[in-house]
Structure formats: C-alpha cells, structure tokens
Amino acid sequence: MAADAASVPGAETLGPPAPDGPRADTRTGYVRYVAGKLGGAAVSLLAVLVTGFFLFRLIPGDPVKTMTGGRPISAGQLAAYRREFGLDLPLWQQFTDYCGKALTGDLGTSYQFRAPVIDKITEALPNTLLLTGTAFVLYTALGIFLGTRSAWRHGGVSDRVNTGLALTLYSVPSFWLGLLLIIVFSVGVGPIPGLFPTGGMESGGKEGLAYVLDVAHHLVLPVVTLVAVEYGQTLLVTRSALLDEMGSAYLTTARAKGLRDDLVRRRHAVPNALLPTVTLVFVNLGRTVAGVILVETVFSWPGLGGLFYQALSVPDLPLVQGLFLFFASAVIVMNTLADLVYPLLDPRVGR
C-alpha cells in the first residue's frame, strides 16, 4: 500500500487539509475588511479636518470686530486681539497649528466665551444626548413596529396610510414642523390652548421631581418634531426588507408545520429582515446627533445645535470648527461601527 501510494504522481504533496484552514481564511478576510473600514474612516476624518478649517473662513465678517460688539476700537487693539487668537499668522501656519492641536484633542479657545472649545462641547453634550437619545429610541421603535405591521399586511388600508404618512413627514423640513408645533401647541390656535413652552429646557427655580417633570414638559415638542421627521426612514427600510423575506421558502415551511402566522412573523421573518435596519440604526444615531442643529435652534434648546448656531453668527471660528468636527466624527464613527457589526450579523459580508 505504501508503494502504491508512493507511485501516485504528486502523492508526496498530498496530506490532510488543515483543520482550521477555512476558519483562518474567514478570520483573515474579516481582519482585512476591518482594516479597510478603519482606514476609510481615518481618511474621512482627515478630509473633515481640512474642510472644516477652510470652509468657515469663507464666512464674511471679522471675528475680532464682531466680538467688540461694534464699539469703536483702535487699530492697535485690533492687532492685539488678532495676535492673541493667532489670526495674524499666515493661513498655512494657522492650518498646521490647528491640525497639530486637533490631533492631540486641543480644539482651541472660543473667541466669545474665552474658554476651551472642548469644555463648551462637554458642557452642552448632555443636553443634546437627552434630546436626541429620547427621540432616537422612540422613532426607531415606532419605525420598526409600523414597518413590520405594514409589510405583513402590505396592500391594505393600514399599509397605505402608514407608508403615505411616513413619506410625507420624512419630506417635511424639521425646522418648519417645529415652528408649526410651536404655533399650534405653545402659542395656541383657536380652541387649542398653549400647552407646552415655546422653548428652552427648563423654567427655573425647581428641584427634584418637579425639575424632572419640568424638563420633560419642555422636551415634548422637540422630541415629537424629531420623531415625526425621522421614523419614516426606519419604517420604509424595515417594510422593504420584510417584504423581501416573506417570499422565502423557510417561511412556507414554518407555516406548513402549523405555526401561527404571528409566530412565523416574530420568530422567523422579522429577525432576518432586521439586518438592514440594524445598519440604519447606527447610521441614524450619528446623523441625529449631527442633524439636531435646526431643531435645537427653533426650540432654543441649550445643546450642541444651539451652540453651533450661536458660534456661527460671530463667527467663532475655533468653536465652529470644533463642533463641525464633532458632528462629522459622530456620523463617521457610527457608519464605521455599522460596517463592523454587519459581518457579525451576516457572515457573508467581509469575506
């Protein structure tokens, strides 16, 4: 037998396959996939850094003169202010200084607040997270629930109503809807009294449970605005993914085994259809943080969006640049996380 094996051409090169060969190839493919996504994210952050520096210097106006409030000021005082904030340096040197500091976490000092930009962002961030986090949970849950119901009963009256309403609200500008809600439910129209505050985060002078209820009262209209505008995308993506799954053979098999229709939907169809929705959830999380500027401005909410609008009106270049970098980074990080999580949910991706 040994002689027969030796007489077979190429037999000496044959051997048992490596037990972990395919698994090792999969791991290697995933590592390459992750490295590519992280590299793409790094390039995107660098592009944001460059764009943010040059873009906001196209805004007309002199930041130093704006900070003086239009008061008469001598040329020497103007020159001193420019030296203090580094505005007298050549543009290329301002850019290199900005990039070097930004890479170490130093986003500069705000012109109008005379405080580190990172401190102003940290101060306003919890207020934005309260608003966007509440809205995110509500519109994600609402979109998934209505999307699955619409897909399972596609073509019916409820499906047409849900889809039509979602498309309509998704196309409405958030600031316009916010202003409309203020007019109707804050100011009051006809028999509808003013039920909610026109803006702000609190009335002041309250503590404990009264303070929590007061903040919740101020939170209602901005959250409703964000939920109304954002839930439609989740609904449409969930509905489309579930419709694709409903024609699959495994669902027919599950029904043939006698499983109830509701059980087939919840245990089999919906979990597989949620893969695109999971990706959308990560993307929406970053986009909601970055897209809350208009809503916070309309409702005078003391978060990052209101701070960005206030800085843009000066223009407070370090603060504007720092907030722009933060907003863009939130979107890039969430997109990257979605790309990294998706292969764990669907092993076919990233091979």
UniProtKB/TrEMBL annotation:
Residues 125-338 form the ABC transmembrane type-1 domain. Residues 1-23 are annotated as: Disordered. The chain crosses the membrane at residues 38-59, 129-152, 164-189, 209-229, 273-299, 319-345. SUPFAM superfamilies: MetI-like. It is a multi-pass membrane protein. Signal peptide: none annotated. GO terms for cellular component: plasma membrane. InterPro entries: BPD_transp_1_N, MetI-like, MetI-like_sf. Its main location: membrane. Belongs to the binding-protein-dependent transport system permease family. This is ABC transporter permease. The lineage of its organism: Bacteria, Bacillati, Actinomycetota, Actinomycetes, Kitasatosporales.
